[in-house]
Design brief:
Shape of chain A: flat
Strand order of the largest sheet of chain B: 8-9-10-3-11-12
Largest sheet of chain B: 6 strands, mixed
Number of strands of chain B: 12
Oligomer: heterodimer
Strand content of chain B: 25-35%
Order of helices and strands of chain B: EEEHEEEEHEHHHEHEHEEHH
Helix content of chain A: 55-70%
Number of helices of chain A: 12
Structural class of chain B: alpha/beta
Radius of gyration of chain A: 29 Å
Order of helices and strands of chain A: HHHHHHEEHHHHHH
Largest sheet of chain A: 2 strands, antiparallel
Number of helices of chain B: 9
Strand order of the largest sheet of chain A: 1-2
Structural class of chain A: mainly alpha
Distance between the termini of chain A: 57 Å
Number of strands of chain A: 2
CATH class of chain A: Mainly Alpha
CATH superfamily of chain A: MetI-like
Shape of chain B: globular
CATH architecture of chain A: Orthogonal Bundle
Distance between the termini of chain B: 40 Å
Strand content of chain A: under 5%
Number of domains of chain A: 1
Largest interface: A-B, 31 and 47 residues
Chain lengths: ~300, ~260
């Protein structure tokens, strides 16, 4: 029996119940050293950044909400959303084609993926912008007949169109691989079960494969989305007035290069942080072991006694 | 006479690459018959079963299920593969129960059972739901319709899987080691459902290691080893007095 329990209150506070004592984590010398170095480094960077006049924080503040910059931000957001939507749709088509049993279909998708993942997206963007050099006049119509509508590529391929086409076609290749990865995570048994019920390919895809592939596709797509937000800065080389190009347009006039690059960077950073929150929620939701249960699943309360088979 | 619920296979051959898994296997199952296939692992018994509903394609031989050529149509010179739609239609008349249940995890028990009738046969949802409730009750799971597979035990999942197959109103039920993935105490509840089904006159082909079930329920028995049928005949007779040495050796090991 413990002797401390019957004594006065001051004794009680000094000796806690052994069962309630907290267990403290061991901190090694390296941990203290890491903290010290980290704080020193942080203070040094902060001091330098705040005292170096070349950063021109006043200019940064002035341009941060400038209309040109905000217009650029809007265009960047539009490009991100549009290319992700179109890219995902095309990626889905490519993923389905890639896993087709019909050789030429699978092969076509394979060649597409190789081409678009094997060349830099910057090169692709410039290529699409200059496509008119290859095909000045394109005729949409039936091959080897006179039926068709002529299209002037030079006017069609404006910088924004080239940006949309280039980013979408490139993103589709990456989304195709993500979606195909999700498809292959669906067990063979699931497909056999659907087959043995006599489901057609389309029903099987819609009701069995896609719902089960989503948990691995959605978080990866979120990552792509965040990546695409920054990737759009590449289209500045085509003269599309997105966020980076808007900043460049201003500093070409005022020579305040660094502050305007900081303005653009801060916006990219803010938007990435804003997007990271839903992304981390998505990842958490789909990585939990209970994620095998769909969201609408009721808590398992099996109150009724288990029936005995007749 | 209707040939529904019958299987006639002659000289079924199947190989995976260089490895031949079925050498000229014959199989006859009459309507309402329960046929058990036993044998050591790798003997080709599961492959034979999977050939019966087209999960594996037969390389050669005659296969008639429910009285019609399965998966192919015959011309004087060859068998031609059927279109997907026609094959799917033939499959709807054959139920399949898997070792790993293979319930759709994204659907509730009720939705799993309704999947066939609604998505394949285009049945009316309300009607299919009532039918699902009735089937759940018949496998002893009344009121479990809203549960997802992950919330059910292995035995319960397998019973839902049986109900899912039955919802298509098949003439033949195929069982591929239906109790092998279950905890020992859950085996009985699944076998009980299968016995019930046999009693109602369903044609069943069962690949199993449950010799007790084979002895009690099945009419005929096939013992397979290395891709051939070593011994066939009355289930009780074979289990009591196996004639072939290989059958004797196998039964000695498992009984």
């Amino acid at each position: 029996m413990l002797q401390t329990t019957g004594h006065g209150s001051e004794r009680k506070t000094s000796v806690t119940d052994p069962a309630l004592k907290p267990r403290l984590r061991r901190r090694g010398a390296f941990e203290y050293l890491a903290w010290a170095l980290c704080v020193l480094l942080g203070a040094g960077v902060l001091y330098s950044v705040s005292t170096n006049p070349n950063f021109q924080w006043g200019v940064v503040a002035k341009y941060f909400t400038e209309q040109t910059i905000l217009n650029g931000l809007m265009l960047t957001i539009f490009l991100t959303v549009a290319t992700m939507l179109l890219g995902t749709l095309l990626g889905l088509v490519l993923a389905i084609m890639r896993s087709s049993r019909i050789k030429p279909v699978a092969l076509t998708a394979g060649v597409y993926l190789t081409l678009f993942r094997g060349t830099p997206v910057l090169v692709q963007l410039i290529f699409w912008f200059n496509i008119a050099a290859l095909y000045p006049n394109l005729t949409l119509g039936i091959p080897f007949t006179d039926i068709g509508v002529p299209v002037d590529i030079n006017t069609l391929m404006s910088p924004i169109t080239a940006a949309l086409v280039g980013l979408t076609l490139n993103e589709a290749a990456y989304m195709a691989e993500i979606i195909r990865g999700g498809f292959s995570a669906v067990g063979k048994g699931q497909i056999e079960a659907a087959d043995s019920l006599g489901m057609g390919s389309w029903t099987k895809l819609r009701k069995v494969i896609i719902p089960q592939a989503m948990p691995s596709i959605i978080p990866a797509t979120g990552n792509q989305f965040i990546g695409m937000f920054k990737e759009t800065s590449l289209v500045s080389v085509l003269g599309v007035a997105e966020l980076l190009q808007s900043a460049q347009l201003i500093y070409a006039r005022t020579y305040e290069t660094i502050p305007l690059l900081i303005v653009a960077s801060l916006w990219y950073l803010v938007m990435t942080l804003v997007l990271s929150y839903p992304q981390s929620l998505l990842e958490k939701r789909y990585s939990r072991s209970t994620s095998r249960l769909p969201r609408k699943a009721k808590k398992a309360v099996l109150t009724e006694p288990e029936g005995i088979a007749r | 006479m209707s040939a529904d619920g019958t299987i006639h296979a002659r000289g079924i051959r199947k190989s995976f690459g260089p490895k031949t898994v079925l050498h000229e296997v014959d199989l006859d199952v009459a309507c309402g018959e329960v046929c058990c296939i036993i044998g050591p692992s790798g003997s080709g018994k599961s492959t034979l079963l999977r050939c019966l509903n087209g999960l594996e394609e037969v390389d050669a031989g005659v296969l008639k299920v429910n009285g019609e050529d399965f998966g192919y149509y015959e011309t004087p010179t060859a068998y031609h593969a059927l279109g997907r739609k026609r094959l799917a239609q033939q499959r709807t008349r054959i139920g399949m129960v898997f070792q790993q249940f293979n319930l759709f995890p994204n659907m509730t028990a009720q939705e799993n059972i309704m999947a066939g009738p609604v998505l394949v046969k285009g049945a009316e949802k309300r009607h299919a739901a009532e039918e699902a409730e009735r089937l759940l009750a018949s496998v002893g799971l009344r009121g479990f319709g809203h549960c997802y597979p992950a919330q059910l035990s292995g035995g319960q999942q397998q019973r839902v899987a049986i109900a899912r197959s039955l919802a298509m109103d098949p003439q033949i039920m195929l069982f591929d080691e239906p109790t092998s993935a279950l905890d020992p105490e859950k085996v009985g509840e699944v076998l009980a459902v299968m016995k019930d089904l046999a009693k109602k006159g369903m044609t069943m082909v069962v690949v199993t290691h449950e010799m007790g079930f084979a002895r009690e329920v099945s009419d005929s028995l096939l013992f397979m080893d290395e891709g051939i049928v070593v011994e066939r005949g009355d289930a009780r007779e074979i289990l009591a007095n196996p004639k072939e040495a290989r059958t004797q050796a196998f039964l000695e090991r498992v009984l």
